[in-house]
């Protein structure tokens, strides 16, 4: 909200010496965030001049310039010669002259310079050059603003160009501050300065007619039980002159407030909206067909709004209609058929109160935010429409030459009921942590306009009509803290309750993430949204379609599904980095995936009340309405593990690096993870493995198919791994990660066995380990040979075995015997033979 200081001073005593920064500091102290300071960004000398005479001189480029003699007053050098390219002024006109040394917005410094064969000793300015609007078609003639000032006086002060505006951020719950009335009141709260309420007019003074113009509200489909319009006030002003100029002071204030001047009638409605906070709409009375009815849109109805766009209406949209049909989107934007134009002679003024939810939904549905909807959706003072309508009428009489019709008008309104709030006397000090006295609490509440009445150990508080955000004792407590000053609130951190720290699952997840980061991988959290195709490709082993959860209101319409896998998110991160030249990537993510069960419908239409703690049955129903959400961990490696450097060749990431990452995860979790060759839709056949722990499948590892990698614009090889982290940690249970060390030496043995080529090495290793028994400490595959010297269709697998006993030194015979027992099990299962 931009607030011109000259305007603010009309309603509150702002010291003459107070700067814009001083005003902002005061408003910040009562909870507003400062945004910026705005001014017209020009400096003098800029004076009033009078065109004495001019000579038109055609130029060789086809343009005609005027060589003007302009009187700027004896104190400014008398008559000066100025070259001007505009042709909309006449001899005798008083204009704005920027003399050498002046600086216009841009910045655009003014100097005497030779042009078109003359020395132009200054410049005659247009409204746009002065920052008063976008119109650049000609010179600003002061007579068009209704001004006849003395020659030579300061034009900056004359036009209000010396004013400055402060800009504050108004939060959605404080819509009353989207007005000079509201900001002036808050400045008064902050400084104690006297406040003059522009909305304080007695109803009898307003001379509201009770009939003569038909107004009706017909709402058969209220939202949340609230009708679309609770108040609708109509006033009529006749015989206006829409060609009259908007006064310079009003143009300057509207410009500083961020609103463009659009003619005297529209400027007045905008001015009162900024002044009182009630959006006003004016209609050309002569274009209306009959009375006005406020109703919801019918199916198939359309409306062309003031921006020239035809809009298909929704049945929830609230409309302003006459006998011809829709003439405006209530509280958002008027229609083009009844707008005020330069030919308007009679004006119907509308000031209303519309339902906040209805207006907010309409503005978002049609992507049509406006200054009016911004205020209505936050809540407008229900006691202000009568004052606002009369204020507009008075200004149209004063500035546009109209006549107020005191016999014809109309009004529909419901009684304004402000519900009392019970505030226990001990509540505010207990919540805020400050020892407020009863007198301080009452004074703070009365300062913001509340009516406070003592009732035993509590107060009964009736909030002011302009504060719809004050609904309970908590919001009242916040106001006491705000008005009394946040500086009194102690800056002490609360003492946390005693507890057991992280749960075992939380500790396990943290160990895994820290281990991967320590191994050189970078954690990259991503959004949990993807496409149905990506879910099918990465969320199942076969690529077959599986059910996914689709969001009703997704952030990205192209990715409306919740992810079944973390890999699509890692691919997006890798793609984004590769597009910026970062191609050597080692990434990981821990996060939830969403795995709905086939045939189960998720979601619920029952939402528990926010102010009531749900019981166990309600929580169980909510849990049943969401799909299983296990936490996974995934790894993606692409590019080079070792970059090319002098004397060292580049080494690309491969499947072995992904397996190392898997082993890191298993070690941190406290489980032993084995890999067995398998197949998966998105992964390269022959370079894919299923991961298991204690006989339970926990994930997969492999190299992406080249086509899948290319679809993400990733060059070269991409290896990935994904594990169900919750399952891994559950399998680890209470196992001790660090094992006891034996003090006896190890006995090492190697064995090479010949098995069929289609037998997985992991299965052979598992058979050897099972047969070798408790003495086997470690087993590693060190060679996989296929070729000359072996029967066709077979391969030779060489394993390194390490044996150790906890209570003695093993002999070579004991180690050999354990090894041969393992070979026997492998022979029984796979026909394994020791290679000779």
TrEMBL record:
Main location: cytoplasm
Reactions catalysed: tRNA(Phe) + L-phenylalanine + ATP = L-phenylalanyl-tRNA(Phe) + AMP + diphosphate + H(+)
TRNA-binding domain sequence ranges: 40-156
Names of required cofactors: Mg(2+)
Binding site for Mg(2+): 469, 478-479
All copies of domain FDX-ACB, residue ranges: 742-835
HAMAP family per the UniProt record, alphabetical: Phe_tRNA_synth_beta1 (MF_00283)
Membership in a protein family: Belongs to the phenylalanyl-tRNA synthetase beta subunit family. Type 1 subfamily.
Protein name: Phenylalanine--tRNA ligase beta subunit
Lineage: Bacteria, Bacillati, Actinomycetota, Actinomycetes, Micrococcales
Name of the gene: pheT
